[in-house]
């Protein structure tokens, strides 16, 4: 009797460990920052894997970390070797740029996806690079965060630039009461910017809503004008936001697959009922002095 051979494709795609190393290298290439005499590369990376993939590789993650660091070091050497003549030309012309250097010690951390965003075989790499301040704008240092994902043979990219949040003053400016799948909650607004949504490894939120996917990962942002104390809501969602039952205009434009706020915002009074895709409602109330 001829033995039967199963030639069907595996039910779940498998990533080789070298794919993880390549994903980190790809992320680094997209987060370089030219200075006047050098170019900075991020040295801190978070690598998220599907929980099953994380368990499969957990025993060799220290070796993968070591080889990733070796590969990053080799990549910087290769980039600098290829661009030596270009660096000389830039120096002669007084243009920014120069040898590519790591912004610190290499740090690579591997984590299982805690939010169920990644499919089997997917990889998400998150790197942050502190950018130089812009004195002409009166702004301090900024941080650029680049998240690159490998989904099958496709690569995704998400970028955000932010400044460290000012320490909370301790003053409560407003309160938000809502009920989601975890029950009732009350959130105290103590900052000038508050992001609301389901959140996730690639989406930072202040108010995390446990609800159906109708509520976007980043659904809206509530902005407080520090000079007037007035509040505004900026809709960042896919399925919409309402204020006191009325839909608000989108607060972002799609640019090359990325969301960019467009300056459109809706005033909030001292009290408002904010709807998130008709699924969850926030009862917003400014705090009395």
Q: Overview of this structure, please?
A:
This protein is α+β, with helices and mostly antiparallel strands and 289 residues long. β15 (241-243) and β16 (246-247) form a beta hairpin. α1 packs across α3. The chain has 2 domains: 17-162, hypothetical protein PF0899 fold; 174-286, Tumour Suppressor Smad4 (Sandwich). The protein is 18% helix and 37% strand. The protein has a 6-stranded antiparallel sheet, with no helix packed on it. A 5-stranded mixed sheet has the order 5-3-6-7-8. A 5-stranded mixed sheet has the order 12-11-13-14-19, with no helix packed on it. It has 4 helices and 21 strands. The radius of gyration is 23 Å and the shape is globular.
Unreliable sequence segments:
1-12
Sequence of secondary-structure elements: HEEEHHHEEEEEEEEEEEEEEEEEE
CATH class of the largest domain: Alpha Beta
Give the N-to-C terminal Cα separation.
Answer: 86 Å
Class per helix and strand makeup: alpha+beta
Which whole number gives the mean pLDDT?
84
How many strand segments? 21
> What is the helix tally?
4
CATH topological fold name of the largest domain = hypothetical protein PF0899 fold
Widest sheet, order of strands? 10-9-21-20-15-16
Helix coverage percent: 10-25%
- The second-level CATH architecture of the largest domain is 2-Layer Sandwich
Number of domains: 2
Strand content: 35-45%
């Amino acid at each position: 009797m001829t033995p039967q051979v199963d030639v069907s494709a595996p039910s779940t795609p498998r990533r080789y460990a070298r794919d993880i190393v390549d994903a980190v290298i790809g992320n680094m290439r997209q987060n370089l920052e030219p200075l006047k005499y050098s170019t900075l590369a991020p040295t801190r990376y978070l690598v998220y894997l599907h929980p099953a993939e994380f368990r499969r590789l957990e025993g060799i993650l220290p070796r993968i970390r070591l080889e990733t660091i070796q590969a990053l070091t080799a990549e910087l050497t290769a980039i600098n070797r290829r661009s030596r003549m270009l660096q000389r030309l830039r120096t002669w012309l007084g243009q920014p740029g120069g040898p590519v250097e790591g912004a610190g010690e290499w740090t690579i951390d591997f984590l299982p996806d805690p939010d169920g965003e990644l499919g089997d075989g997917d990889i998400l790499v998150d790197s942050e690079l502190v950018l130089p301040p812009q004195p002409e704008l009166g702004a301090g240092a900024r941080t650029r965060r680049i998240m690159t994902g490998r989904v099958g043979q496709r690569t995704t990219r998400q970028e955000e630039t932010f400044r460290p949040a000012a320490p909370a003053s301790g003053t409560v400016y407003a309160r938000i009461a809502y009920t989601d799948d975890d029950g009732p909650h009350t959130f105290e607004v103590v900052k000038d910017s508050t992001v609301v949504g389901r959140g996730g490894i690639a989406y930072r939120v202040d108010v995390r809503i446990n609800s159906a996917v109708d509520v976007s990962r980043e659904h809206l942002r509530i902005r407080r004008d520090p000079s007037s104390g007035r509040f505004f809501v900026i809709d960042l969602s896919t399925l919409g936001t309402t204020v006191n039952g009325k839909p608000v205009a989108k607060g972002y434009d799609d640019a090359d697959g990325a969301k960019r706020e467009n300056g459109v915002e809706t005033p909030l009074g001292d009290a408002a009922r904010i709807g998130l895709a008709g699924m969850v409602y926030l009862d917003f109330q400014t705090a009395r002095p």
